[in-house]
Amino acid sequence: MTNTIQIPRRLNASSAISFSRDLFLILDQDVVSLDFSSLKFALPSGVLFLASVIRHFVRDRQGKKTKAINVNASNNAHGYLLHIGFFRFIGLSRGNKLGDAKGSSTYIPITKVDNTEIRKIARKQGISNLESIIEKSDQLASLLISDYTNHSAHRAISYSIREVIRNTFEHSNTEICYFCGQKYSNGAVEISIFDEGRGILESLKESYSFRNNSEAIDAVILPGVSRMRKKDNRANIFDNSGFGLYVLSELGRSFGNFCLASGTSNIIITNDNRIINIQPNLPGTYIGLRFENPPRSFSGTLSDIVSAGEDEALQYGEVVSASKLSRLTNDKISSKE
């Protein structure tokens, strides 16, 4: 028996989450057709979330047939997915492979980021792994913010990319994550990252006793919440003080939106909403961040967010300061904003 399910008309994080619930209801069907005929708009937040869900769905079906139908390269949204490697990523033989599309000043295709390669580059150049991650983040940010006179926008995007990559490799027990991004004509920028590691709940179990994914998701974006606790009082730029995801969520709240998904839960944050949803079990972690307008003074914005976070942590009993790394902006681009 064949079961057909429609891809949403506008693919963003919210619609992809809703779609994923319906998709896993037909997990046991012999043949599942993913119908792309309705799709007209595809945003990176929806693209990578949907790709991760379908990738998981195809694997769970253990060889049962899953196919994409009504894909038309002349449709802009379909052509975009074919070009950035979406169909290859989910396990279907259509369109470009990962790495075929090189990106431009307006987009980053689905890109594999391998920590093993980052460490090799670091050793070859005689730099730290952190510096190598910063270089990689700069490369990705430069694809989206090619105007180097807009130092603050470049710093904001590079910082955000660096933090999501760093969080992945420090917490997920995996060496690989996947990234994509888009810059729009109105100046908005959207970035997404996904890994297939152990997920947030399993990571935080080392230091906390959360009962479920919803509790872990809700807590991990609070300032000071991290699986890694400082062992002593020595200042160390590599200390993870639990401010990385907090800062990203606050940037999303202030300048666009932020989405975090792991296990059976996700949270979407905007300037006036904080909504936790239930989803099918997603291995690993997904992060989506959208800037409607990047901050005009990123260093000042970051300082304000970190200071507010330190005050907030005190209110619920956590005596903690953000590490130097969480405060660090990239001065390689320019000392000015």
Quickly list its features:
337 residues, alpha/beta, Transcription Regulator spoIIAA, Heat Shock Protein 90, 2 domains, five-stranded antiparallel β-sheet, three-stranded parallel β-sheet, 12 helices, disordered C terminus
What report would you give on this structure?
- The chain is α/β, with parallel strands linked by helices.
- It folds into 2 domains: 2-89, 2-Layer Sandwich (Transcription Regulator spoIIAA); 107-327, Heat Shock Protein 90 (2-Layer Sandwich).
- The chain has 12 helices and 10 strands.
- The strands form 3 sheets. A 5-stranded antiparallel sheet has the order 6-7-8-10-9, sandwiched between helices. The protein has a 3-stranded parallel sheet with strand order 1-3-5, covered by helices on one side. Strands 2-4 form a two-stranded parallel sheet.
- Strand 7 (176-183) and strand 8 (189-195) form a beta hairpin.
- The longest helix has 21 residues, at 151-171.
- The chain is globular, with a radius of gyration of 20 Å.
- The chain starts with a strand and ends in a 10-residue tail after the last helix.
- Mean pLDDT is 83; it is low at 229-240 and 331-337.
